[in-house]
């Protein structure tokens, strides 16, 4: 174990931890936005399935409504990609 | 192109004697969209809805019979192969001569089948009821016929003791255990209470004789025999389908036409001696329809073109080059264009495959999708399914094209460097020299968004000019221009503050005032002017201004969804090949071979999953960009579908 109190931090260690934190940030960006999208799609999806059960012609439109909150997770993905690459 | 087909409004009036000739002619042309007549109570002349032609109810009841037979035999007119058209006269004689016998045959088969099925159910039920008794060494006649004794049979969690004199059988060989208790009738209530306290559930005692097992065997045999008979009948029904399928769909078509023709007067206005109908005909077919009608009615007819009062009443028929026709399905899914507005089908048909290709730019996945669309052609012969298939085929071709440009094949690199920006992510240490050019790709997709949305706003201006009149039109046009100005104003301000690769660098322009340079000042002016222009139409719209940014950024999905699909492909390759197959190939052992097989499975399943995700992600996201980001800028929709009176004959010919 490294005792950060006394041991010298080398440049490599700092760089490595920065890369790691970036990866954590990217993960958080995708994960949290994913939860946001999921919560938003929950209600829409339930209503969409109900509407489709009533009228099969609704399927296309229902599918479309369901993917509208996808934008949130896509923004998260964009942020993650920008962080990582 | 870019607008629906021009329509003319026709008014046709003729003596009632000509009604059959007129209906037949209109039906043959399949171009006249009937405007249903609605009776008004305060009309000066007594005008009524017409009566169906004689023969309507006969044709309708014959049609119901045919549909019933088709239903029973599982014949779907959409799925029947067209070998040869049958002359109408022949079909009519078939309906007269053969139909009753055929109907009788099918009805008899169906009745017999439902009887047999009922018997089968009953036998199954009996066998099920007898099952618990097979565990008790008593014949069935031992269970009933007593005067002084009561027999209690049922399920019980565990064996129990009974205080009064009794005879008891218990078995745990059946599900839920079974207990049979025979007691004197005077003790019955007490024993029942004891049993119920122990969780007893009574089962009915079947009225049978002989040993339970032999009865069960008897019923099982009966069920088997009935099954054989039912499948025999199913074979005979299939035989009817094979022999008469084509004739039946031909009869169906002919009778449907008969019924539609006979019921047409229900949509006409009639007086004592004449009938009047209004409707729509595409402009290029008007003269021909008129000529034919005059000839058919022997000149005893009055046809006139009416002025179009309300443009929203005009039925809408697409007018597109043939390659764009499949995209009409994507348009109908959203909403059919109004008669007056720009029909964006052509743009969708070009841009949708491009977006799809940008997202799923991989030769391998593109080829799979292409093969899939060819394979599925058998199941979708016509209609929306077929159109969707053709749209997907075009999309898969675009996908292969972009795959060549991106140099991708199931996530592997093709033997050349990417011709446009690289999407090869550094996963598992197998990246090409440059790695992925994520930032560049994102900026390109943002550019696509800016241009696509600008196009949408320009179309919005065109639509406002076409759809509205006077002050309203000016206001709407100004508002659309305002949106365009606001967007470009914001862009100019961003460009003047930050130098972004692949975008104009305006940071170096001369400063003018308050730390703003020339571009920024123009940007501010455009922004403020834009906001004023938006607000003058509807002040509430101003709250929507942030959507400019979110809608443009939304186009980043073109890159983001694509990269996620690339990442999944790379991860699958890395796990399957890098971690499972390659290390084992160095030294082959028995376990190693197993791991290699698992690796191959991971590879196949993974790519199958990624193909499905890619089709779903690529298709939904690119159509969504159209519906949500593009159409909201200009498209109204809600046009009435053009539904001409007539039919394309598939199975019969006059």
From TrEMBL, chain A:
Organism, scientific name: Methanoculleus frigidifontis
Compartment annotation: Membrane
Family: Belongs to the ATPase C chain family.
Lineage: Archaea, Methanobacteriati, Methanobacteriota, Stenosarchaea group, Methanomicrobia
Protein origin, superkingdom: Archaea
Protein name (Swiss-Prot/TrEMBL): ATPase
Every V-ATPase proteolipid subunit C-like domain range: 24-83
Predominant place of localization: membrane
Membrane topology: Multi-pass membrane protein
Pfam family, one: ATP-synt_C
This protein's UniProt keywords: Membrane, Transmembrane, Transmembrane helix
InterPro entries, sorted: ATP_synth_F0_csu, ATPase_proteolipid_c-like_dom, F/V-ATP_Csub_sf
Transmembrane feature ranges: 59-84
UniProtKB/TrEMBL annotation, chain B:
Bilayer-spanning residue ranges: 346-374, 395-416, 436-455, 476-500, 512-534, 555-576, 588-616
Principal location: membrane
Keywords assigned: Coiled coil, Ion transport, Membrane, Transmembrane, Transmembrane helix, Transport
Localization, UniProt: Membrane
Keyword 4Fe-4S part of the UniProt annotation: no
Coiled coil: 99-126, 216-243
Membrane topology term: Multi-pass membrane protein
InterPro entries: V-ATPase_116kDa_su
UniProt-listed NCBIfam families: PRK05771.2-4
Family (UniProt): Belongs to the V-ATPase 116 kDa subunit family.
Role noted for this protein: Component of the A-type ATP synthase that produces ATP from ADP in the presence of a proton gradient across the membrane.
Entry protein name: A-type ATP synthase subunit I
Lineage: Archaea, Methanobacteriati, Methanobacteriota, Stenosarchaea group, Methanomicrobia
């Amino acid at each position: 174990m490294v005792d950060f109190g006394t041991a010298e931090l080398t440049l490599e260690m700092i760089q490595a931890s920065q890369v790691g934190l970036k990866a954590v940030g990217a993960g958080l960006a995708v994960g949290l936005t994913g939860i946001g999208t999921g919560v938003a799609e929950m209600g829409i999806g339930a209503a969409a399935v109900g509407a489709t059960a009533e009228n099969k012609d609704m399927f296309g439109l229902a599918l479309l409504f369901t993917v509208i909150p996808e934008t949130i997770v896509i923004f998260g993905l964009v942020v993650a990609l920008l962080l990582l690459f | 192109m870019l607008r629906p087909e021009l329509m003319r409004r026709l008014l046709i009036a003729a003596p009632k004697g000509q009604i059959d000739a007129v209906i037949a002619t209109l039906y043959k042309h399949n171009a006249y969209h009937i405007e249903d007549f609605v009776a008004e109570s305060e009309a000066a002349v007594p005008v009524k809805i017409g009566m169906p032609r004689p023969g309507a109810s006969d044709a309708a009841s014959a049609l119901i019979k045919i549909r019933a037979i088709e239903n029973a035999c599982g014949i779907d007119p959409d799925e029947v192969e067209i070998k040869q058209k049958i002359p109408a006269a022949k079909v009519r004689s078939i309906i007269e001569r053969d139909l009753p016998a055929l109907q009788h045959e099918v009805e008899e088969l169906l009745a017999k089948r439902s009887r047999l099925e009922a018997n089968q159910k009953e036998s199954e039920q009996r066998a099920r009821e007898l099952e618990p008794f097979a565990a008790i060494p008593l014949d069935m006649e031992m269970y009933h016929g007593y005067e002084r004794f009561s027999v209690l049979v049922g399920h019980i969690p565990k064996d129990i003791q009974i205080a009064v004199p009794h005879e008891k059988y218990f078995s745990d060989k059946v599900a839920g255990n079974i207990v049979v208790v025979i007691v004197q009738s005077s003790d019955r209530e007490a024993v029942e209470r004891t049993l119920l306290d122990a969780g007893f559930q009574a089962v009915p005692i079947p009225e049978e004789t002989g040993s339970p097992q032999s009865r069960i065997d008897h019923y099982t045999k009966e069920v088997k025999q009935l099954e054989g008979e039912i499948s025999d009948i199913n074979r005979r029904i299939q035989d009817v389908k094979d022999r008469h399928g084509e004739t039946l769909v031909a009869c169906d078509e002919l009778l449907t036409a008969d019924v539609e023709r006979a019921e047409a007067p229900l949509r006409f206005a009639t007086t004592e001696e004449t009938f009047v109908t209004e409707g729509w005909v595409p402009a290029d077919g008007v003269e021909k329809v008129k000529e034919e009608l005059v000839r058919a009615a022997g000149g005893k007819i009055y046809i006139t073109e009416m002025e179009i009062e309300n443009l929203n009443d005009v039925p809408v028929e697409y007018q597109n080059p043939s390659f764009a026709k499949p995209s009409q399905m994507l348009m109908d899914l959203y909403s059919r264009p109004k008669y007056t507005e720009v029909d964006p089908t052509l743009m969708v048909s070009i841009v949708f495959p491009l977006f799809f290709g940008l997202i799923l730019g991989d030769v391998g996945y593109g080829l799979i999708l292409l093969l899939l669309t060819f394979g599925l052609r058998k199941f979708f012969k016509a209609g929306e399914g077929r159109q969707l298939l053709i749209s997907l085929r075009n999309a898969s071709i675009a996908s292969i094209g972009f795959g060549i440009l991106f140099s991708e094949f199931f996530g592997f690199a093709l033997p050349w460097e990417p011709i446009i920006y690289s999407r090869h992510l550094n996963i598992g240490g197998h990246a090409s020299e440059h790695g992925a050019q994520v930032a560049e790709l994102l900026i390109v997709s943002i550019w696509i968004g800016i241009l696509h949305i600008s196009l949408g706003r320009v179309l919005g201006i065109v639509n406002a000019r076409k759809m509205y009149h006077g002050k309203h039109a000016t206001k709407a046009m100004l508002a659309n221009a305002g949106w365009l100005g606001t967007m470009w104003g914001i862009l100019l301000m961003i460009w003047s503050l930050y130098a972004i690769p692949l975008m104009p660098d305006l940071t170096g322009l001369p400063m003018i005032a308050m730390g703003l340079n020339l571009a920024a000042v123009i940007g501010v002016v455009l922004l403020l002017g834009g906001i004023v222009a938006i607000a003058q139409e509807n002040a509430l719209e101003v709250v929507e201004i942030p959507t400019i940014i979110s809608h443009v950024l939304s186009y980043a999905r073109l890159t983001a969804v694509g990269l996620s699909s690339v990442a999944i492909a790379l991860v699958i390759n890395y796990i399957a090949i890098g971690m499972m197959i390659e290390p084992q190939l160095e030294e082959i052992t028995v376990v190693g071979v197993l791991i290699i097989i698992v690796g191959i499975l991971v590879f196949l399943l993974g790519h199958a999953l990624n193909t499905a995700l890619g089709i779903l992600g690529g298709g939904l996201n690119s159509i969504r960009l159209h519906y949500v980001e593009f159409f909201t800028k200009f498209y109204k929709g809600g046009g009435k579908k053009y539904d001409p009176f007539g039919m394309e004959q598939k199975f019969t010919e006059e």
